[in-house]
Please model this.
Amino acid sequence: MQFQKIIQKLKPGLPKRYLMFIAAVVWTFAGGMLLYKGSVFLHQSAHYIWLRLIISFIGGILFYVFLFSKISLKHARRILNLELEKPCLFSFFNLRSYILMSLMISMGIFLRKSGLVPVFYLSVLYVTMGIPLFTSAFRFYYFGFLFNKMNGRK
Model:
């Protein structure tokens, strides 16, 4: 029992509203990083740049509509429904999402460093994945700003 009290004191707990903003910043950073790296790669291999931008934009929108919009809504709802009033700072993701995020980051770094996939294609992949990540961040900002209204507080 004493151990749990110590853990509770040491746990970096935050109000759920702040978790929304932390999630928003993480998703903004991830999407922004991919968009930045993808744009650098676009300029390194300037062949068919408009075609690659169009393909990336369409692919990014499709990924957002069919996948990321559902994922971000699921995460936002999970944060809203957390039982604790001040959950742990790191609970903006669940364990499965942390594992998936680690794998995606590792795979992106591996593809970039290994040279297995030419920069020509990496530019499309990075921009295509950056668009839904960056766009999904706005859902968390929205829920964060409207948190008090959604929970019946003034």
Observations:
- The mean pLDDT is 89.
- Residues 15-81+90-147 form one domain.
- The chain has one domain: 15-81+90-147.
- Helices lie at 2-10, 16-44, 49-80, 95-114, 119-145, 147-150.
